[in-house]
Give the backbone structure.
Amino acid sequence: MEKKSTQNKDRILSLDLFRGMTVVGMILVNNPGSWSYVYSPLKHAEWNGCTPTDLVFPFFLFAVGASIPISLYSKNGINRIRVWIGICIRGISLILLGLFLNFFGEWTFSELRIPGVLQRIGFVYWVVATLFLIFPGKKVLVFLIPILLVHTWILTHIAPPGESMVSLEQGKDIGAWIDRTIFGEKHLWKFSKTWDPEGFLSGIASIATSLFGVICGFILFRREGRGKNRVLSIFGLGFLFTFVGLLWDRSLPMNKSLWTGSYAVYTTGLSFLCIGFFEYLDSLILLKKWNGLDLKIFFQPFFVFGKNAILVFVGSGILARTLNFWTIVLENGKSVGVKVWFFSKLVLFADPYLASLLYAVLHLSVWWGILSFLDKRKIYIKV
């Protein structure tokens, strides 16, 4: 990991804000006081469908893709082999961090979950950044549609060996069979056992999400396009992809675990719409509108989360697991986890669902304090 005390002076605020709000959402939905008491919008869809929580991961992968042209264009003039080595190091580092998170608190290699969120981020980043390096500019986008179509064809036309029919049910699709074959059942998500929400085949499809982000990155990078035209083009793409995703959903249901084409395109559309809205806010900052309100200060909590995204994701994961297995002894001699104990205190003042949400907000607030401290000192931890 690398500590950077300075940042690019010409940051794109809309992308920072989008990434920050996505990370805030990620921490919020991953840290309820109790998984038994979670409001519906803060839950993933059971299988088909798309809740607000199901937007978090594709939004982040979209942001990863949008950052790639901005980042790699800034490295013009540097030896391409050196740049690619840096890409490999970053991708591998993210995968190793993800494996460490899965290992932390479980302390066993025999049932270590191999797939995971950071593993997918590292894999997708490595693939898209490598493609962008080999096929610079918009040439890289020739891979986008084929990835979606080939993934869809495999998912809907190939049955797992031993099965006579194609199925998109939990654990019965070709992707689940691939995961069991490559990783083994003992190394998949322990709550599903026979399939993994961050599996191999869906990981291939998620590359398309980051490639869509690359399109947005091109638009954001063109500084001469700043203003109404740029905002309108982003909004236009947002509405187009959202509509196509909804239309596709009628024949191929949105499904995060399968990362179906309809899900990828629909969440891409919403990503563009969010970026477009934040670009509009960015223009208000530059024009000093809204009666002198400084939106940088107003949205400060989100900016600090976006600037130290990997740090807070890994750190919050470690903290959450620590609070689960760190126990205290009650007056009756019974040992309970710190998280369970603290949640039981919150329930005394609020109903379980609200108490569970308050716990997540408090967890988020702790990290806001830490990240604000680091931001004031311009300390940013990058992989």
User: Anything to note?
Assistant: Residues 5-9 have pLDDT under 50 and may be disordered. The CA atoms of residues 9 and 23 lie 22 Å apart.
